[in-house]
Amino acid sequence: MASRNRGNPLALAVLVCLSERPMHPYEVSTVLRQRAKHESVRLNYGSLYAVVGALERRGLIVAKETERAGRLPERTIYDVTDAGLVEMHEWLSDLLSTPVKDYPSLEAALSFLAALPPDEVVDLLGERARRLEFELAHVSATRELVERHRLPRLFWVESEFQMVLRRAELGYVRQLRDEIARGQLEGIEWWRTVHEHPDRPPPDPFVDPVATAEQLASPTDHA
Amino acid sequence: MASRNRGNPLALAVLVCLSERPMHPYEVSTVLRQRAKHESVRLNYGSLYAVVGALERRGLIVAKETERAGRLPERTIYDVTDAGLVEMHEWLSDLLSTPVKDYPSLEAALSFLAALPPDEVVDLLGERARRLEFELAHVSATRELVERHRLPRLFWVESEFQMVLRRAELGYVRQLRDEIARGQLEGIEWWRTVHEHPDRPPPDPFVDPVATAEQLASPTDHA
DNA sequence: GCTGGAGTACTCTGCTCAAAGTACTCCAGT
DNA sequence: ACTGGAGTACTTTGAGCAGAGTACTCCAGC
After folding, report:
1. How does pLDDT run across B153-162, given as a tens digit for each residue?
2. Which of A132, A137, B24, B140 is the least buried, fewest Cβ under 10 Å from its Cβ?
3. Taking the CA atoms of chain A, what radius of gyration do you get in angstroms?
4. B211, A146 Cβ separation under 8 angstroms
């Protein structure tokens, strides 16, 4: 009963919307956008109609009626089923209670730091820090606007969380940038040498050459 | 020259590996696993051979030679091209310098907090906090192992960053849980009422009913 | 009265990508 | 000699999904 892959969280968004009242898919998309949920859940029409179809096949929602205004395309109004309400409840509970491995793009980039020369990395991280500051300023500006509309915090906790993550990222980026700039990052001599002499065979990256022998002697899986 | 979508970061990982020395795809996958990069970049064979094929079509890598050991499948050894090195450089620079919107699953879940009753949410967030603590302990244990092998920090900054994010998440989750438990989260009365009387039409969620009128009067886009 | 842009409500197309499968080798154990 | 499990090196498959496209309406402006 743990977190078997449930796929696109947009399907959860659809269940939540339909649990309020029956809607047609396009209305779901406008409601989500009005509430700025498309900042937290990837939303586009291709996926929307795909997940609605899938939810219907799984019996979690049902087509209630179809109407037509003029010669515009037909609108199919869906309603959530009891099974759908159960699934929504379980899915949300799972997401809240169980951390899953996300793959933030910065983590990937940091994995390959050594492929770029250190001085370039200093500049690039500085650039990122500046952009993060700008973004944070922008987000808190719009948040103030929302607050002035008196929409209770309950409805924008996700943007609060977003800012927490962004601030943590900014802190780390700044710190790492400074450490590289000041030559304090462990391994920096190796890093510099490799990029200054791309032709020469790279020297040993290990901090303590004695340890290398140990390392090779005992092929422990530290992977 | 900005961040046009470059697709799967696994392709970047391949470029980085091949920039060290020519390899066949399977060797790329074992190298990435040895260095624990599969913690930061989604890695599986289906995608690996797909991205290698795409890189070849785009002229960023070339098949150098193919060998065969016994009657095992043929191994195609690839090498990076000059264009590939340029692409690697640009891609990495982009990733480092430009923050992009990731969609962490907890952010999606928090977007729909109000769909679950508050007391359940308190329990679920408590559960998550406990699991995060467990994970953090686990990660710092393996990190110590890596340190004892004297592998310089330069090669595990990504796991450092991962821990920074996890700790920030833990802090926020704990705080939010406590605020809900203590009834301090703005909007909690509405939240409780809605779940205690699912039949009754929901009351106005706005903090200050007077503001609602203003809100309706000036349809500013706060989306 | 006609053009052009914003909005409505989807549909189509083709790529991506994860999981599982395939087909072999090498070796340890019995 | 034979079975079985771990490892090697890919290939196949089909669902998922993003972006672009379609076909209409409504309205403002000249």
Report:
1. 999 999 999 9
2. A137
3. 25
4. no
* Collapsed DSSP state (helix, strand, coil) of residue B170: helix
For residue A77, the cross-strand partners are: A65
Rounded to two decimals, the pTM is 0.87
Give Cβ neighbours of residue A107 (< 8 Å, ≥ 6 apart): B40, B158, B161, B162
**DSSP-derived 3-state class of residue B79:** strand
Would the Cβ of B1 be found within 7 angstroms of any atom in strand D? no
Q: What is the mean pLDDT of residues B215-223?
A: 39
- Three-state DSSP at B65 gives strand
Closest to A154 in 3D by CA, of A35, A20, A10: A35
From the number of C-beta atoms within 10 Å of its C-beta (0-12, 13-18, 19+), residue B22 rates as middle
- 3-state secondary structure at position A208: coil
Q: Using the beta-carbon criterion (under 8 Å), do A111 and B142 form an inter-chain contact? A: no
Pick among A157, A172, A212, A216 to test the B interface (most B CBs inside 10 A): A157
HSE-CB for A183 with a 13 A CA cutoff: 4
Whole-number pLDDT of residue A215: 43
Cα–Cα distance measured from residue A120 to residue A60, given in angstroms and rounded to the nearest whole number? 52
Contact B124/A96, CB-based, under 8 Å?
A: yes
- Report which secondary-structure segment, H or E, holds A176: helix A157-181
**How many other CB atoms are there within 10 angstroms of residue A51's CB atom?**
22
Q: A39, B169: Cβ pair inside 8 Å?
A: no
Closest by Cα among A76, A177, A186 to B151? A186
Tens digits of per-residue pLDDT, B73-117? 678 999 999 999 999 999 999 999 999 999 999 999 999 999 999
- Report in angstroms the alpha-carbon separations of A71 from A74, A75, B156: 8, 11, 60
Residue among A31, A20, A27 at smallest CA distance from A85 = A20
B206-210 contacts: CB < 8 A, separation 24 or more? B206/A150, B206/A151, B206/A152, B207/A150, B207/A151, B207/A152, B208/A150
Reported as a single tens digit per residue, the pLDDT across A5-31 is: 688 999 999 999 999 999 999 999 999
